[in-house]
TrEMBL record:
This is SEC14-like protein 1. GO terms for cellular component: cytosol; Golgi apparatus. CDD domains: SEC14. Residues 300-476 form the CRAL-TRIO domain. Residues 1-156 form the PRELI/MSF1 domain. Keywords: Cytoplasm, Golgi apparatus, Immunity, Innate immunity, Phosphoprotein, Signal transduction inhibitor.
């Protein structure tokens, strides 16, 4: 307890623990029970942009320490105060006396995490929370031992047990005055690290340092190492041999080559047990999905060949194969909607398998080991359409699969012409990327790649692609918008058992002439943010937002009634009563937005008042000719194409609470999705601004 209390009010060994204040303290009459409640200020290691979006620099936790000197127990309970309506974190720790040996202390710790919603960054927050918690567990023992040693240096080596007040007063180490926390010191990592010229001290069987003494069987041919594997220390060489021998003895099936085994060892700092675990998982995964035969048996769909803007392009100055990806010119949403997530994942796997094959070829051509490739990503044209949530989630899953099964294959990642929206995408994906991989990223904004330290440092001038100002013709597809006609319906995707994220977060609705579809959103706090994302799958519609102080009547259950229509293509719900009058019972808070068939629309609205907001998709009537009351011929033909005056939309809505949102609204303005340089017909709309005037 003496050592534990020295962690407060702040602990230099825990950098994220900034400060703490006692908000409540209680002692019973005899002093056997002491309860302290603190408010702790933490600086979480999270991306700066995520903090900006969340609107906080620090998060606060409430920690309650309950000490029972009579029972010799200390119970610690903690829960988050910040974002408690969105994220629920609970932690419980206990220190007790061992039942068989009173000189031993038992420690137990448990925690739970429940993320309800967090601005669409739920997976990112979960990664950050798990990373912080794992780090805290690893350092917990070191910190308590550090303060125990500090007490020993001060002469406090024994603290007598608590006795009731009528017994003699304690005059031991507990009477010593409290000293300020000493400055932070470097505590060595428990895992053994190999350094040049240093002695290895074996500590666990999984450490590379406990390799058996070198024998002729534990050596590889020096020329073979130099030619195919690169520089290896004797310990690293021994680890490779031992892991390969274990695979030969226990693994049934194809044994990977030394170069591939070495990738997994390097990914785990040559910890044999950890490398063996992830390698075995990967081998099982490869067998289940027939990845070894993907290049010979799987032909990418034509839509991928036409619209996936990526391909191999010569090699860099180090001899690594060069892969070029024009992400800014690629319609990620269209590809997901046309193919589904599984087809995209399989295509990325085929790219990685081709990369492994090219590394082997370049090793033979250049006469030196080449085990990784370079990726050049051009972000010219990247916009908010690329941040379509189902597409981002598909990207995160692809990253996880590649990180787990192709470690240490990325030698360098060159990100060129990064626009302002790039930090948003980086915030989403970076927590899923290994720290060693992130160190290989080089990011250039605008034309910085053309200056010193730019592209010419890594790629020969003769092979710089033409679209980057070079003279080499690049055969990578130019991408472009995937035609809506290639999109698959939810029914088709379900029948083919393709996992598409839109099946879970998007809803379908039918809109009829005289029967709009309406969604009710109740706002408790003013200045909340209502966001939407919808596609007009059929027909033309008008999108409206209304506000009312009173709740509309719930829709009737009668499927043939005026308030609710059920159809195979989606639901139709009407909330605004026929007797309601615009301007008296409800008001329009945004200008109507006309949306044509095939358009995708994303946007937001900042509420000014609490109450009930109604999002409405209404059938768009064709305007009559200006000089006559008769409809135009084109209008008649267009109306005939819409059977029974029916439209269809697929939509998703979300509300961001006012207490949590402090970010910029510019990224949430309503706009038609498109590419700035790909489609001249695609225009941005700003009919829904955060500054729009709202009438009651």
């Amino acid at each position: 307890l003496q050592a534990y209390e020295r962690r407060f009010p702040t602990c230099p060994l825990i950098p994220m623990f900034v400060d703490s204040d006692i908000i409540n303290e209680h002692k019973n009459e005899d002093g056997s029970i002491h309860v302290i409640e603190r408010r702790c200020k933490l600086d979480i290691d999270a991306p700066r942009l995520l903090k900006k979006i969340a609107g906080v620099d620090y998060v606060y936790f409430i920690q309650k320490n309950s000490l029972n000197r009579r029972e010799r127990t200390l119970h610690i309970e903690a829960h988050n105060e910040t974002f408690s309506s969105r994220v629920i974190i609970k932690e419980h720790c206990s220190y007790t006396v061992h039942p068989d040996n009173e000189d031993w202390t038992c420690f137990e710790q448990s925690a739970s995490l429940d993320i309800r919603s967090f601005f669409g960054f739920e997976s990112t927050v979960e990664k950050i929370a798990m990373k912080q918690y794992t780090s805290s567990i690893k350092k917990g023992k070191e910190i308590i031992e550090y303060y125990l040693k500090q007490l020993e240096r001060e002469g406090i080596t024994f603290v007598p047990r608590w006795t009731p007040p009528d017994a003699h007063k304690v005059k031991c180490g507990t009477s010593q005055p409290r000293r300020p926390a000493s400055p932070a010191i470097n505590i060595p990592d428990s895992a053994a690290k190999e350094t040049s010229g240093s002695k290895e001290i074996p500590n666990t069987s999984s450490s590379p340092s406990d390799a058996t003494a070198e024998t002729p069987d534990d050596k590889l041919d020096a020329d073979y190492i130099k030619r195919y594997l690169g520089d290896l220390t004797p310990i690293q060489e021994s680890c490779l041999i031992r892991l390969r021998q274990w695979l030969q003895e226990t693994h049934k099936g194809k044994i990977p080559k030394d170069e591939h085994i070495l990738r997994f060892l390097r990914a785990r700092d040559f910890n044999i047990d950890k490398a063996r675990e992830i390698l075995c998982q990967s081998l099982t995964w490869r067998k289940q999905h027939q990845v070894d035969y993907i290049l010979d048996t799987w032909n990418p769909p034509q839509v991928l060949q036409d619209y996936y803007a990526g391909g191999w392009h010569h090699h860099d100055k180090d001899g690594r194969p060069l892969y070029v990806l024009r992400l800014g010119q690629m319609d990620t949403k269209g590809l997901v909607r046309a193919l589904g997530e599984e087809a995209l994942l399989r295509y990325v796997l085929s790219i990685n398998e081709e990369g492994l094959r090219r590394c082997e070829e370049n090793t033979k051509v250049f006469g030196r080991p080449i085990s990784s490739w370079t990726c050049l990503v051009d972000l010219e044209g990247l916009n908010m359409r690329h941040l379509w949530r189902p597409g981002v989630k598909a990207l995160l899953r692809i990253i996880e699969v590649v990180e787990a099964n192709y470690p240490e294959t990325l030698g360098r990642l060159l990100i060129l012409r990064a626009p302002r929206v790039f930090p948003v995408l980086w915030t989403l994906v970076s927590p899923f990327i290994d720290d060693n991989t992130r160190k290989k990223f080089l990011i250039y904004a605008g034309n910085d790649y053309q200056g010193p330290g730019g592209l010419l440092d890594y790629i020969d001038k003769e092979i710089i692609p033409d679209f980057l100002g070079g003279e080499c013709m690049c055969e990578v597809p130019e991408g472009g918008l995937v035609p809506k006609s290639l999109y698959r319906t939810a029914e088709e995707l379900e029948n083919e058992d393709i996992r598409l994220w839109t099946e879970t977060i998007y809803q379908s609705a039918s809109v009829f002439k005289g029967a709009p579809h309406e969604v009710l959103i109740q706002i408790v706090d003013a200045s909340s943010v209502i966001t939407w994302d919808f596609d007009v799958c059929k027909g033309d519609i008008v999108f409206n937002i209304f506000h009312s102080k009173r709740a509309p009547q719930p829709p009737k259950k009668d499927s043939l009634g005026a308030h609710s229509i059920t159809s195979p293509g989606g639901n139709n719900v009407q909330l605004i009563d026929k007797v309601w009058q615009l301007g008296r019972d409800y008001s329009m808070v945004e200008s109507p937005l006309i949306c044509k068939e095939g358009e995708s629309v994303q946007g937001s609205h900042v509420t000014r008042w609490p109450g009930f907001y109604i999002l409405q998709w209404k059938f768009h009537n064709m305007p009559a000719c200006a000089t006559t009351n008769l409809p135009r011929v084109d209008d008649v033909l267009a109306s005939l194409q819409v059977s029974s005056h029916k439209c269809k939309v697929m939509y998703y809505t979300e509300v961001i609470g006012s207490e949590d949102f402090r970010g910029s609204m510019t990224s949430l303005e309503s706009s038609h999705s498109g590419f700035s340089q790909l489609s001249a017909a695609t225009t941005s709309s700003s009919q829904s601004h955060s500054s729009s005037m709202i009438s009651r």
